[in-house]
Amino acid sequence: MSEFELQKTNIASQLRNLCAHCANDVIHSCKIRNLAEQVNCLSGVPLIVNDRFNGLLFTN
User: Fold this and answer.
1) What Å distances lie between residue 28 and 21, 24, 34, CA to CA?
2) Per residue in 16-54, pLDDT tens?
3) Rounded Cα–Cα distance for residues 19 and 30 (Å)
4) Helix extents (H) in the chain
5) Contact 33, 20 (CB under 8 A)
6) What sign does the CA torsion over 32, 21, 37, 27 have?
7) Which terminus of the chain is less hemmed in, N or C, by CB atoms within 10 Å?
């Protein structure tokens, strides 16, 4: 798994922990759940300089 994928997974997990329903995998509709799904859907080309992840160039 790439550094970007690891960061994306960690961020989505931390977001889900902010909502008790999301943390317990209860299917419901909330802004936190939507935000975590948007984070999971991010894609692009990782910007790596000197073997260090510095960001993401977003693609359409």
Assistant:
1) 7, 11, 10
2) 999 999 999 999 999 999 999 999 988 877 788 888 878
3) 9
4) 3-16, 20-23, 31-40
5) no
6) negative
7) C
